[in-house]
Amino acid sequence: MSGVWVFRNGVVRLEEKPKQAAPCKGKKALVHTPSGQPVSSHDALQRCLLELGWERYYEDPALVQFHRRSSVDLISLPADFASVGATHMNDIVVKNRNCFRVVDFAA
């Protein structure tokens, strides 16, 4: 018997636990859309972002950061590229529409 006890209108009822969405299958990969190539390192990402007008910040050694002078946008990534997750990748996609996409990585 799993679920949540809910008190409504003076009556306590057991409501079944809602089915959860399927977990994310596998890892995600960032793809540079114009070239179709996956971005697998900070160097590869930096090359793509420099072409789009981003500048690299070197202030914090624990982070790899990029800023575009024409906006207030800032991209902050962990120094270890293996720690870059789907949230970081989606941040890059949102700030560079039509230049990157996130796909399921088939290992």
**DSSP, total strands:** 8
What are the low-pLDDT stretches, counting only 5+ consecutive residues below 50?
Answer: none
Rg, Å, rounded: 21 Å
- Report the mean per-residue pLDDT as an integer: 86
**Distance between the terminal alpha carbons, to the nearest Å?**
38 Å
- Helix-strand makeup class: alpha+beta
Fraction of helical residues: 10-25%
Q: H/E order of the elements?
A: EEEEHEEEHE
Strand order of the largest sheet: 4-3-8
Shape descriptor reads: elongated
Summarize the biggest pleated sheet.
3 strands, antiparallel
Number of helices: 2
**How much of the polypeptide forms β-strand, as a percent range?**
35-45%
Family: Belongs to the FPF1 family.
Organism: Urochloa decumbens
Protein name: Flowering-promoting factor 1-like protein 1
Q: Can you describe this structure?
A:
This protein has 107 residues and is α+β, with helices and mostly antiparallel strands. The model has no long low-confidence stretch (mean pLDDT 86). The strands form three sheets. A three-stranded antiparallel β-sheet has the order 4-3-8. The chain has a three-stranded antiparallel β-sheet with strand order 5-6-7. Strands 1-2 form a two-stranded antiparallel ribbon. The protein is 19% helix and 39% strand. It is elongated, with a radius of gyration of 21 Å. The chain contains two helices and eight strands.
